[in-house]
Write a structure and sequence with these properties.
This protein has 123 residues and is mainly beta. The protein has no helices and 11 strands. Strands 2, 4, 5, 6, 9, 10 and 11 form a 7-stranded mixed sheet that branches. Strands 1-3-8-7 form a 4-stranded antiparallel sheet, with no helix packed on it. A hairpin with a 5-residue loop joins strand 5 and strand 6. The radius of gyration is 13 Å and the shape is globular. It starts with a strand and ends with a strand. 34% of the residues are buried.
């Protein structure tokens, strides 16, 4: 079993930055792709970014150039550096892990999920 715990969310003004972290316990990141999804009020959960076991990255068009995903396998921790934040980035952000090395953008293909952390961007 895997437990994922996100941290780092909060309230920030438009144009500001936040760094989210996701710590895994119960299982290492070995061989796993990990990613971030978000869900705004009244909307479906959407893909944000993911990183493969071999450190290949993939981003949603809406965050490309502003967000950076990274991972530290020794610490079993995933990060999301969010810069130039916009009000439309406001959502609950979830980290997710899949028991396969390759990145996918479909949430149903991820096996474990964190509880989420709220990010609010004010205009």
């Amino acid at each position: 079993q895997v437990l994922l715990v996100e941290s780092g969310g909060g309230l920030v003004q438009a144009g500001g930055s936040l760094r989210l972290s996701c710590a895994a316990s119960g299982r290492t990141f070995d061989g796993s792709a990990v990613g971030w999804f978000r869900q705004a009020v009244g909307k479906e959960r959407e893909f944000v970014a993911a990183i493969s076991w071999s450190f290949g990255t993939y981003y949603a068009d809406s965050v490309k150039g502003r967000f950076t995903i990274s991972r530290n396998n020794a610490k079993n921790t995933l990060y999301l550096q969010m810069d130039s934040l916009k009000p439309e980035d406001t959502a609950v952000y979830y980290c997710a892990l899949r028991r396969a090395p390759v990145v996918v953008t479909t949430d149903t293909l991820y096996d474990y999920w964190g509880q989420g952390t709220q990010v609010t961007v004010s205009s």
